[in-house]
Amino acid sequence: MPFMLVILIVLATIAAWRPAEAAQAGRYEGDAVVDWKSIPGDVTFEVPLDLTKLAPDITKVMVTCSMTSDAFPMRKGKGAPVKQPRGAQVELPVSAGQLVTTARVVIPVTVDSFMDPTMAMPKDPTGKSVDYQCDIMGFSTKGGGWQQFIDKITEPKNTNTSFHLTPFPAPITGRFVW
User: Fold this and answer.
1) Which sign, positive or negative, has the C-alpha torsion 44, 59, 48, 135?
2) Helix, strand, coil: what percent of the chain each, to 5?
3) CA distances from 127 to 64, 79, 160, 165, 176 (A)
4) Beta carbons of 59 and 141 less than 8 angstroms apart
5) With 0-12 CB in 10 A as exposed, 13-18 as middle and 19+ as buried, what is 65?
6) Which of 68, 69, 67 is nearest to 45 (CA)?
7) The whole model's pTM is what?
């Protein structure tokens, strides 16, 4: 199992507050109260890595995870608004051509992550879906720098053999709901 994913979602405690207390601890969104304590916490991706027989010039591996959600404010683009991803990465050293460990990638999720810039108030993320993706890259000291690993079977003509992996770990994608 060269590359798989276990997601740990650390959620903040959800408390039932009365309106008077909510006025002090949260903000109103229409008729509903957005309780600061109902905002999810950090999202941790645990990615087990079993990479062996790596090229000698691959000295580091980076695991990158990102997520998008309708719960996050949209970023204004030239055309339609664009979902703004949240992400994080971790770099791990390769030793003797292998990396066998579990990478922990923590994406910080704060109240500001859900802040609606037009209203200066947080949007309630409860019930909203989150799409995520995790990828791995290698760092070559032979001049390749950081690059995605390559599937030797589907891209045999790629001359940068340092980044060939067999079996090839496809990106890990999925969805969860807050």
Assistant:
1) positive
2) 10, 50, 45
3) 25, 27, 44, 38, 10
4) yes
5) buried
6) 67
7) 0.72
Rounded to whole angstroms, the Cα distance separating 7 from 40 reads: 14
CA distance 120 to 112: 10
Q: Please name the amino acid found at residue 10.
A: V
Determine what percent of the chain is predicted with pLDDT higher than 70.
Answer: 69
The 10s digit of each residue's pLDDT in 97-112 is: 999 999 999 998 877 7
Q: Quick one: DSSP state of residue 162?
A: G
**DSSP codes of every residue in 2-47:** -B--EEEE-PPPP----HHHHHHHSEEETTEEE-GGGS---EEEEE
CB burial string 89-125: b at 16+ within 10 A, e below? eeebebeeeebeeebebebebeeebbeeeeeebbbbb
Quote the longest CA-to-CA distance of the chain.
Answer: 67
Q: What is the pLDDT of residues 109-121, one digit of tens each?
A: 877 777 666 666 6
